[in-house]
Design a protein that fits this description.
single chain; about 375 residues; alpha/beta; Rossmann fold; Helix Hairpins; Heat Shock Protein 90; five-stranded parallel sheet; 9 helices; binds adenosine-5'-diphosphate; binds magnesium ion
Length: about 375
């Protein structure tokens, strides 16, 4: 630990020596000044940790001048006054000028040590506090910087996705019109089909971006309507059924009769389940099965989306729910979007007070399980 520096200001040589012989063994680097002028000169240099000054040097004004001189130059330095009983009132008055403590002469070595140790302890805890404060300020500054970058990112994503959305919708509309003008068979039609599929894939990616931005707005509001899960899941499967045929996939729906409803936002929950359904299509094996089911357990409704694809390795079961996280390399993959689907689903499910997880063994398919609070009965 660095040696603490102390300045003893004392015009009486025997008191000066007495103090120095106590302070040096305590580990202080001791400097001496015999009067106010010498003291003020020393104070021009590197700050002391503590100034131990006699009050009357020879007049009380000299002691006061040392206190004021110290505090004005180095507010962090602590001043301890040594005073004889007749000047005690003056010493106490000088505490108001910034002296830390006083000690009444004559004193024992033990007493001087106690007063100085107390002062050192106070200084150390002050230092710890100021380090803690500096750290806290640093963390706060980093956090607000991060929030700024985060907001910029959101604004950027929002802007580009809106800018992309309109031309994509226009392209799809033009393709629909073109479809009406083309002969029923022929190369033109198959090329148009390819173009439509590519634009639809782009539109899905932009839609994920828009959803992602929407869901991260601070004022996300949720409806709480009673929702029939079998009906909602049925609608999701119906809307995307055209994607099943190219891979020869089959879908089975399994719901118990009288499944209680779930309070929620139908539009958002549909988006959440759609992502799971799309993944079950994209990551399934050709000719595979997709099972959509739900069951009731205590106060919860569990919705399962099960496929027969490669599955999710154990070590990625949590990360796949992070935004932009994908198992396959984005550049080489042929299916899926930007890696936002599961992050979107998780956000929506959690906003409903639910949770999501996946059960999977490699090569055995995946079973995504969404748990939602069921509607309370009155
Ligand atoms: N049913 C599934 N089977 C296997 N892997 C899956 C399945 N669903 C998701 N994944 C993995 O999790 C990743 C993240 O999924 P998601 O967030 O929907 O993003 P995306 O579909 O855009 O890649 C996928 O890229 C894939 O690696
Ligand atoms: Mg996906």
């Amino acid at each position: 630990m660095a040696m603490e520096r102390i300045l003893i200001v004392e015009d009486d040589d025997s008191w000066m020596d007495f103090c120095a012989t106590i302070l040096e063994p305590m580990g202080f680097a001791v400097d001496r000044a015999q009067n106010r002028m010498q003291a003020l000169k020393r104070l021009e240099g590197v700050p002391y940790d503590i100034v131990l000054t006699d009050l009357c040097l020879p007049a009380a004004e000299d002691g006061k001048a040392v206190v004021l001189g110290t505090k004005s130059r180095h507010p962090g330095t602590d001043v301890i006054l040594m005073t004889a009983t007749p000047s005690l009132d003056t010493a106490i008055a000088i505490l108001k000028d910034g002296a830390y403590d006083y000690i009444v002469k004559p004193f024992t070595p033990d007493y001087l040590q106690t007063v100085l140790n107390r002062c050192l302890e106070k200084r150390r805890s002050q230092q710890e506090l100021s380090v803690e404060k500096a750290l806290r300020e640093e963390v706060q500054a980093a956090y607000s910087q991060l929030r700024k970058v985060e907001r910029l990112k959101e604004a950027f994503l929002s802007r580009i996705s809106h800018e992309l959305n309109t031309p994509l919708a226009e392209a799809l509309m033009a393709m629909t019109l073109l479809d009406g003008h083309l002969p029923k068979e022929g190369r033109g039609r198959s090329q148009l089909k390819m173009a439509v599929q590519a634009v639809e894939r782009l539109r899905d990616i932009v839609r994920d971006l828009l959803d992602f931005v929407d869901l991260h707005k601070e004022d996300l509001t949720l409806k709480a309507e009673p929702i029939s899960i079998p009906q909602l899941v049925g609608e999701v499967a119906e809307a995307e059924k055209r994607l099943l045929e190219p891979k020869g996939l089959r879908v089975s729906l399994k719901f118990p009769p009288d499944l209680p409803s779930v309070p929620g936002d139908p539009e958002l929950l549909k988006r959440a389940l759609r992502q799971l359904f799309l993944n079950a299509i994209h990551f399934n094996k050709p000719g595979g099965q997709i099972e959509l089911s739900a069951k009731e357990w205590e106060n919860w409704i569990f919705v399962h989306v099960k496929d027969e694809g490669e599955g999710v390795p154990n070590e990625h079961k949590d990360e796949i729910f992070d935004s932009f996280y994908q198992l396959a390399d984005f550049m080489t993959r042929t299916v899926g979007g930007l890696g936002l689907g599961l992050a979107i689903t998780k956000k929506i499910v959690e906003a409903h007070g639910g949770s999501i997880s996946v059960d999977s063994a490699p090569g055995q398919g995946s079973d995504f399980k969404v748990c939602l609070p069921k509607q309370k009965t009155k």
